[in-house]
Amino acid sequence: MATVKKLLHTRLRVNDIERTAKFYQEALGLTVSRRHTSPRGAQLVFLATPNSEEEIELCQLPNSPSVQVQPDLMHLAFEVDDLTAFAAQLAARGYALSDGPTQSGSGSMIAFIDAPEGYEVELIQRVK
Question: Which run of H or of E encompasses 22?
Answer without folding.
Answer: helix 17-28
